[in-house]
Structures are given as C-alpha cells and as structure tokens.
C-alpha cells in the first residue's frame, strides 16, 4: 500500500521564549497525532539571533528553499536585544511573508471563558471578533530611504504602499470570513481616511464597491483612533475588522490584551492563491503560524511563558491543513484548560503554573 504523504512543517523555534513555547506546541501536536488524516513531519531550522550573532546569517537560501517546499511554517519568535532592531524582522519574518505573498494576517481576539480581561463589565460574549490584517503592503515594504543621515538636515522617508489589487484582495477575503463566521454579519474597516485622503480614500472606495457584492453583510468604516477607543469601550460592536498592515499590527496588541493577554493570542499569515499564481518556483507553502508575541527576553529561559498562544497557532495551522478534527480537539482542550481556572494567577493574565505544566494541562484534555 502507498505510504500516506506527510504534511511537511518547517519549524523556527527562534529566540527568547520562542523555543519554550514551541516545545509545548509540538508536544500538543504529537498528542493529537492520532486524529490526523496525514502525519506531520518536522524540519527544524536554526534561524534566529544566536546564529546571527555567530555567523551574521539570517535566513539562508537553503532554508528558504525548505520553507517554500513545506506545507506550512510553525514559528515561535525571533529577536534579541543583542541584535540591532530590524535585521531579523526584515530578513526573516517580512522576507517569508513578502516572498511567499502571505498577504492575509488573521488575528482572532476571543476572550475565552476563564481568561482575564482588564475591561470592567465585559465578558466572553462581548469580546469575540477577528482582525483581518493586510500583510504585504503599507509602510512595511521598506520603500524609502534616508538622506543626509546623522546630520541636522537628515530626511527620512518610508513610503506607505496601497495598491488597488492589494486592497481588493484583503477586503474580499475579509468579507468571505465574515460570511463564513455566521456571527453578526458585520464588517468594520479601520483606516485614517480623514487625513490619509489619497491612500485611505482608495480603501474607502474599494470597501464600498466590494460591499455591494455582499448585500447580507453590514459594513461600517471607522477611523483608527475611534477604533482603538472602541476596542476598550465597546468591543462587542466588532465581528470582523479589516485594516492595513500597520494599524492591524498595533490594534491587535490591544486586541490581545483585552482578550486574555499576549500569552493567549495566536496568528496565521496565509494566502489563498491558486497554485499557478504563487510567486515562488516550486512553492507549496501558503502559511506561517505564530503567536503574536515576540521573544520576551525579560522572561526567557525561566519557564514562565504562557504557551497557549503558540498552541493556538498550531491549531490554526491544522485548520489551514484541513485537519479540522485535530484542530477542533486542540481548541476544546485549550478552552477546558483556561476555563479550569488553574493556570492563571487570580485576576491576571500571568501564569500560575510553569510553561511545561500549562502545556501538560492542554495535553491532559486531549
Ligand atoms: P516584539 O518587539 O518582537 O513584539 P517585545 O519583547 O517588544 O517583542 P513581546 O515579546 O511581544 O514584546 O512581549 C512584551 C511583554 O509581554 C514581554 O516582555 C512579556 O513580559 C510579556 N509576554 C509576551 N509573551 C508572553 C507569553 N507568551 N507569556 C507571558 N508573558 C508574555
């Protein structure tokens, strides 16, 4: 009988708490393996600050080839105070996102029963939305430059790229997510169209036009400052939020903190392109899955990091690989763990147990 082909996963545990939380994620994936249609095969890549400090290598060509040929990437965090800011972000995270055209960044903001929110009088039924962040344009493309660096006349320009194609495809995806959720059928676009009239004027026009194809979905466009206030004041008004790259980056840290803290927040960087439209020769990979937090050097190596965000990123990866039974088993196990009330300190997003013990608790429900 022919051997069942495995899902090939490139693993970048990375720096700081990255390896600690990825270890727990892999433990959970291993525990759930009996529910998989196809086994998982992991290739561990030594990408991150430690190697950069030794060799000045970020992501080698060979590693990029491995990633391109994988079914998905599972990443902990990269970054270290000893590495100048921007190097690993640009040459690892942004490189993978841009070169593979992972133009969709999904960031659920869901307050699980038993998790702590700093918002008074808000509960799980109030905080249940998803942010669909554009992931391939905006100021993150690195276009621009510095003139007369280091002088009093220094000029720094960083271009904000917004293309009609880029805006249309993320809006279309967000409307589809909204229909599929069958929740409030409500989409909120976040922009700053009152000031960035050219760039976000394009978003507004595209949103109105796209919305006509989705008559069942209520649409609302709001400015980013108002959205930041409403994430705190009335999070229950959100169902699907769609926004550009930089606003999505910032707002989802706020979204994380109202829904249990950075230790619970996972994200998927994906695309839904047909194979002939994938940008890289031989590209199979359409997804990178990671917790939204960084390497958290302040707590690294102390068994203090919450692994649930990394475990939920693994769950999103399984959904992406159409392993829905295993993904839903992880989701249920995480919900039971959080609802059990034993892993958090009282009224706090901080763990009351170690990273290992939190991972073990999730496994115990699988
Ligand atoms: P980056 O710039 O890559 O986002 P950072 O160090 O500025 O990295 P994070 O690593 O995201 O920011 O974390 C900010 C703080 O939140 C950390 O210093 C840490 O105290 C806390 N934190 C982040 N992730 C976790 C986690 N999984 N468990 C517990 N605390 C966390």
Descriptive labels:
366 residues; alpha/beta; Isopropylmalate Dehydrogenase; 2 domains; 10-stranded mixed sheet; 38% helix; binds adenosine-5'-triphosphate
Report on this structure.
A ten-stranded mixed beta sheet has the order 2-1-3-12-11-4-5-10-8-9, sandwiched between helices. A two-stranded antiparallel ribbon has the order 6-7. The chain has two domains: about 1-105 and about 260-365, Isopropylmalate Dehydrogenase, CATH 3.40.718; about 115-260, Isopropylmalate Dehydrogenase. The model has no long low-confidence stretch (mean pLDDT about 95). Helix 1 (about 20-30) runs parallel beside helix 11 (about 355-365). The longest helix is centred in the middle third of the chain and has 18 residues, at about 165-180. It is α/β, with parallel strands linked by helices and about 375 residues long. About 40% of the residues lie in helices and about 20% in strands. The two termini are about 30 Å apart. It binds adenosine-5'-triphosphate. Adenosine-5'-triphosphate binds near residues 17, 296, 305 and 306.
TL;DR of this structure?
With 366 residues, the protein is of the alpha/beta class. It has helices spanning 18-31, 49-55, 61-69, 87-99, 164-181, 197-211, 224-233, 245-258, 308-320, 324-339, 355-364; strands spanning 7-14, 40-44, 72-77, 104-110, 128-134, 144-147, 155-158, 186-191, 218-223, 240-243, 266-270, 287-291.
């Amino acid at each position: 009988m022919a051997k069942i082909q495995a899902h090939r996963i490139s693993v970048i545990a990375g720096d700081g708490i990255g390896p600690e939380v990825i270890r727990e994620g892999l433990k959970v994936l291993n525990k759930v393996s009996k529910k998989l249609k196809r086994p998982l095969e992991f290739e561990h890549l030594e990408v991150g600050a430690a190697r950069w400090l030794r060799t000045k290598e970020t992501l080698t060509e060979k590693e990029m080839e491995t990633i391109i040929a994988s079914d998905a990437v599972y990443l902990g965090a990269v970054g270290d105070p000893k590495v100048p800011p921007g190097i690993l972000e640009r040459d690892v995270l942004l490189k993978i996102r841009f070169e593979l055209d992972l133009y969709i960044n999904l960031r659920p903001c869901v307050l699980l029963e038993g998790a702590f929110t700093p918002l008074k009088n808000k509960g799980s039924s109030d905080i249940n939305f998803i942010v669909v962040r554009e992931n391939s344009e905006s100021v993150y493309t690195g276009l621009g430059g510095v003139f007369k660096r280091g002088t009093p006349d220094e000029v720094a320009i960083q271009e904000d790229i917004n293309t009609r194609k880029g805006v249309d495809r993320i809006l279309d995806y967000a409307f589809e997510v909204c229909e599929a959720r069958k929740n409030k059928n409500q989409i909120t676009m976040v922009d700053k169209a009152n000031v960035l009239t050219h760039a976000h004027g394009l978003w507004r026009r595209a949103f109105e036009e796209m919305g006509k194809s989705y008559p069942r979905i209520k649409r609302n466009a709001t400015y980013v400052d108002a959205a930041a206030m409403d994430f705190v004041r009335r999070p229950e008004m959100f169902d699907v939020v769609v926004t550009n790259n930089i606003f999505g980056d910032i707002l989802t840290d706020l979204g994380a903190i109202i829904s249990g803290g950075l230790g619970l927040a996972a994200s998927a960087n994906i695309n839904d392109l047909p194979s002939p439209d994938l940008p890289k020769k031989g590209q199979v990979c359409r997804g990178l899955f990671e917790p939204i937090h960084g390497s958290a050097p302040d707590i690294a190596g102390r068994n203090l990091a919450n692994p649930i965000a990394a475990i939920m990123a693994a769950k999103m990866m399984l959904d992406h690989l159409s392993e829905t039974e295993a993904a839903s088993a992880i989701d249920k196990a995480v919900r039971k763990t959080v609802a059990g009330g034993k892993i958090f300190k009282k009224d706090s997003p901080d763990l009351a147990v170690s990273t290992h013990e939190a991972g073990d608790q999730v496994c115990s429900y699988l």
